[in-house]
Amino acid sequence: MALVAQDIYTLEELKSIIGSGVAYRVRLHGVESLEEAITMYRTLDDAVQFRGWACPQLNKLALVAGIAAEVDRVIDELVPSLLEDDENRVLMLLLKNAAWSIRNNGKLVDADAGGIFRVRMHPIANRILKAVRLFLTARSTPTGRRDRLHAIVYDLKIFRESYYLPIP
User: Fold this and answer.
1) How many domains does the chain have?
2) Residue 14 forms beta bridges with which residues?
3) Domain of life of the organism in this record (predicted)?
4) CA-to-CA dists, residue 59 to 12, 39, 50, 55, 147, angstroms
């Protein structure tokens, strides 16, 4: 069976063709936001594995979905736990690892995407790393730690919800 070529720009477009019964060769152009990346990846990966679809950009989308998962983990798990116990060194190291993961996966995506993650995500990852460094060296007050954590969450939420991310 021949695959039908289809350009996809949004999650809604992907959802609109998912139940059609036609096998597609999807050319993915981007993700509306990090919020949609995980859903788009799961939907498209399912179609590739079980419906015979093809998508050359699926690996890049997997990296973007990984970044989205790390951002969600920082926002929903790590920062709230640190706000409760702001001297927990294990949580601080997990936050540091998440920042490096976001940064390194962003570099892999950026190799073909024209630097969008470097421009938008590296400053946030650098702020997280600086905050952890200050926390671990005890050069920050409890109020200063809380303020930095709230600022990091604010920046991550804006990034997660606001930016169109091209998938080369």
Assistant:
1) 2
2) none
3) Eukaryota
4) 20, 15, 17, 9, 36
Question: What whole-number distance in Å separates Cα of residue 114 and Cα of residue 100?
Answer: 20
Over 90: is that where the pLDDT of 121 sits? Answer: no
Could you list the residue range(s) of the whole structural domain that residue 38 is in? 4-59
Q: What is the pLDDT of residues 139-159, one digit of tens each?
A: 888 898 899 999 999 999 988
Q: Does the predicted model carry a pTM greater than 0.70?
A: yes
Q: Which of the two residues, 45 and 33, has the higher pLDDT score?
A: 45
Domain shared by 102 and 53, yes or no? no
Helices (H), the chain: 11-18, 34-50, 58-73, 79-84, 89-113, 116-120, 122-136, 142-162
Residue 168: inside a domain, yes or no? no
Q: In this structure, what token pair is assigned to residue 59?
A: 């690996």
Q: What is the pLDDT of residue 1?
A: 65
54 and 111 fall within a common domain: no
- State which amino acid sits at residue 83: L
Rounded CA separation 120/118 (Å): 6
pLDDT at 113 over 70: no
Domain assignment of residue 167, yes or no: no
